[in-house]
Amino acid sequence: MNRQPPVVLITGCSSGFGLHTAIAFASRGCRVIATLRDLGRAQTLLDGANRAGCAGRIVCMELDVTNHEQAGSVIQRAQLEFGGIDIIVNNAGYALGGFAEEVPIERWRELLETNVLGVIALTQAALPGMRARGRGLIINISSISGLLGLPGFAPYAASKYALEGYSESLRHELAPWGIRVVLVEPGAYSTDIWSKGLSAVREDAAADSPYAPQLVRLLARTRAAAERAADPREVAEAVVRIAGKRLPQLRYPIGRGTRLAVLAKALLPWRLYEAIVQRMLR
Prior knowledge:
Blueprint: E1 7-10, H1 16-27, E2 31-36, H2 43-52, E3 58-62, H3 68-82, E4 87-90, H4 105-133, E5 136-141, H5 154-174, E6 179-186, H6 193-204, H7 212-227, H8 233-243, E7 251-254, H9 258-267, H10 270-280
Parallel strand pairs: 1-2, 1-4, 2-3, 4-5, 5-6, 6-7
């Protein structure tokens, strides 16, 4: 990178992966632009950065990734104040579960606006500056749900599968300019993303839903997974390590059992794999 400390722009820093990733980069001496939809929620981030002794290297900016005009303004401001952006971590997003037949189309649209179009709009705004400088790294926070479509999470899986395809194509397109694109694919971690996602499942489920028995089992399994979930700082530390690689690979599944699950889907005959998934709901 250049002689100045790298400039890192991270979306969705009010909690979870975004918050911890901002602190992890700042702790390594990077200059961090931490964006939040509501700046009133920045105090948790700043308190954590103060404890880590790196608050002076974090600048908070307001950004709702679904507001594409605002995304362009944030990129422009970052380039003016910092001289350019070296790394973008597209982290902002949320989980939405539910059985595909029952999730209202409005919820699908809102999810895709945030998880997919928000990433695309911010990246489009940043790319001219990266190309002009001949370098850059874009890290898109995907999910194991972008590799495995499981029952009860069709909306979230659809958004992350879309992000996976977009990122793979983008990586090929940007390679001639020295810009790398990376996907980080966490499994279950202790963040509030799943509690919010499960709330949406319950809201959308009809009282006489034909999926009611499966829904009960799905909620029980997801709660159990959440209780065993690992510390989200593992993902933040992994993102920082990936950013330090000269030639990062495209995909990084992270978390307990993620690599095994991906390998099982790739190697097992589909009928056997499908039977295993169906057994989860019985």
